[in-house]
Amino acid sequence: MGNKPKKQTNPLDEYDPFSEILSRSDLKEEFELNIIKKIKIKKLKQKQKHKKIETIIQGTRQGSKSFSNENVKEIEKNQSQIVELDFSWNYLVEIPLNFSEMKKLRKLKFHKNAMKIGKLQNIHHLKMLTFLDLSFNRITQLPKEIGKIENLEVFKLNNNRLDVMPNCLFKLKKLYSLNLSKNSITNTVQPISLMKSLAILDLSYNKMNTLKIDCFYDNNLTDLNLSHNLIQSLPKKMKDNSKLQFLDLSHNKLEEIPQILFSLRNLETLNLAFNTNLKGKEIPENISKLKKLKNFEYLGVDLSIEKPLPQSFSKLTNLQVLKLRYCGLTSLPQVLLKLKNLQVLDLTGNSLNDLPEQFETSFPKLSVICFAFNKFKKVPNGILDHPNSFQAITFDRNPFEDDHLKLLNLGNNAILLNINEKKKNGKKTINKESETETEIKKEEIEIENENENEKEKEKEKEKEIEIQNEKKKEKENEEENEKEKENENENEIEIEKEKEKEKEEEEEEEKEKEKKKENEEEKENENENEKEELKGIITATGMGKVSPNEKHLKKFRKKLTVKTSLKIKIKENSTTLNVEELKDKIKGCIIGNCLGDSMGLSTEFLNKNQNSVYYSYGVIYPSDFILDHHRSNWEQGDWTDDSDQMLLILDNLLDGKGKLDEIDYASRLLNWAKYGIADFGDLAGNGLGRTVNSVLHHECFLTEPHKSSFEVWERYGKRGAANGALMRTSILGIPNFDDLDQVVDNTLTICKITHYDPRCRASSIALTTAIALILQGESDLEQILETATKIGAKQFLIEENLEKEKIEEYSQDYIKYSKSNTWEDLKLDQSGQIGYTLKCFASAFVSLRKLGNSKDSSKVLRILSELVWEGGDSDTNGAIAGALLGTWVGFSNLPKEWIMEMPHLVWVEERVEMFFKLLGI
């Protein structure tokens, strides 16, 4: 290795986005922001390539509500030659242009603006226009002139506020693709067949209930998406859609599988997922009529198939993708073994514990298998012995008895790992093996057959050898015993000498310890005097006397990391709640955290004055969000980094089988910061604050995270008290809720990974303690908040790294905020203070006081909406308030109309179910 130590490199040095992210608490109330958008203007000249003229639009944070005269003049000069215009991502109410002279315009993009009524002057003159994007606006109606755009082929109107399909759409004779998803449409005004060329129609995420008889009669649709509506049945005339290939009816209210589906003979993809009213319904025999079906999804939480799959299912010979998730299957249906073209089989969330013997000789084209959330105790032989070269096999969340490393070494698994490595490097693709690879496989199979015959012979030989070896060992042991006796005398002499040396060293160490004790006693006497004065402050404010926890009196540097082994199975008599009430409150805590976070994104970093400009007072739904530079980083209805980091704790507990480990969580946090959550399609962790960013860059973060956060806190003058730890710790009120000391230890373990300030620790502990008390069955609201506040206050009594004056100042601030009753007391949009952890924790307490003993979901929604309206760091305020309110009222009393807007709800619900199993409920 050489004499010089290797220079330690920071794993984040190459990750540029960190250097550009500002701290939440450092964001100003208002700031100037350049919104740069290109308006593409192409001049068409004979024998010349297209030239682009780029116009830069500048505006404030709220966006540009109109173009400047210079912008308009620049466009008007070139309007006769313009081919494409892009006005997207500007807060424009209308396009201030006359399109009468834009004879060559083919594409017009106006998505992510603020237009309410489609005011497009003379747009019917755009004879060459083929592409129009008005998505992500606030459009409630369209002008009649839209219907006169003769050559329009693609029209995007998704994420608006339409309640009916505008009549003008039915006059677009060449329209090929129409996206109306995420509006509020209840039905179609006229038959879709009037749009003769329409092939692709997306009506997902609307409010369609009863479909008109002729709405889908005799049309040319090939792709129809009706998912996420309220549809209970389909009109009979829909059977005449002879060209339909893709049909998505997932997330509706279907009460039975519509028989008319089996008349759609060209259907290739059918999705019936999450129609929970289908529980217990059998799949009809005539499904076999769908001869061309390649992709079938029939899944949903708590969905079950009470009767076996029909024998006719085996006739779906073209089926390539089959998903029967959460269908209550206890064994693999035999009819599936006949699906020779199946490539993807997903049976997640059933009760399978083994596979039939025929499995290894079935599915010759199968490449992806998912058996997650089943009851397998080991990898079944049907998988290990299968000749296929699998792309992916998933047994996530099964009660495996085998050690993980042993599983990796079993049979074909070693080959699978090698295949995956080659696939990553782009050297190999599934189902397209080279001739050399197939030859190698044949040789391997022959060798395996020969080995099986020889194994029995080898076993007999091994037994004989073992008998001989045992006899030899006995003789050798006797000889060794004699030699050991001779050496014992010599060893005893040497041991006595070593003991004498050890005694001398111990005496010297004791002397040094006595000196250290004397010095420490002097310091402790000084600290005790300071603590007595601080106790007086707390007592005077009604907090009562709080005894310091002696375990935490040692300086931080003497104890840097702690692993807490959790025995989190809930004990008997630990709560007055019944099992269903307890599960409801635990789920309410986790989903409530995500709910408040999602709602808070609407006004994050805005003040109340700005909110009144962008929104109408009341509930703000995802479709109402302004799509500025900040909010556009998230999918509609999604939560932010607050809940992401809370879910990392949940995964830490699930994967560790209840063990909470700060080293593991630090690694997860770093990975999240770089890549986000892969299941959500993230490219990186969004919303990282300055404190967390600095700690992640610390050289010791992955080995000593507590030390890293302490040194970062020290580096910033011991002043930083941001809410970055509080925002993620609500879930730590759940494990060991019957042991408040353990709840405190768990909270400190995770809090101190990034935030060491006593205010961060105290506020996090107050939140988790309040949640734990509710789960114990405590019903006196004020008593819960008072007890939680007292326990959190202990962090000021044991703090040794601050001057007495600072401790007094911080503790008084903590007490003041804990007693807040109104939003006005908190000033959540105060410039430079929006990320203060004490304001944040107090906002949750105020929310609970406002709710009182009510369990009304509409009141919960109103209170969270009021909190969000206050602005500031509203997603974090909403997250912890949502967690506390969700624990208080339970998941069943949270506002479902908002929760259903969250795109990753099912993903979280699956983890909550696993958490219940870990807790033993």
From TrEMBL:
Species whose genome carries this gene: Anaeramoeba flamelloides
SMART domains on file: LRR_SD22, LRR_TYP
Protein name: Disease resistance R13L4/SHOC-2-like LRR domain-containing protein
PROSITE patterns linked to this entry: LRR
Binding locations of Mg(2+): T640, D641, D642, D873, D875, T876
InterPro entries found in the cross-reference section: ADP-ribosylglycohydrolase (IPR050792), Leu-rich_rpt (IPR001611), Leu-rich_rpt_4 (IPR025875), Leu-rich_rpt_typical-subtyp (IPR003591), LRR_dom_sf (IPR032675), LRR_R13L4/SHOC2-like (IPR055414), Ribosyl_crysJ1 (IPR005502), Ribosyl_crysJ1_sf (IPR036705)
Residue ranges occupied by any Disease resistance R13L4/SHOC-2-like LRR domain in the UniProt entry: 98-204
GO MF, one annotated term: metal ion binding
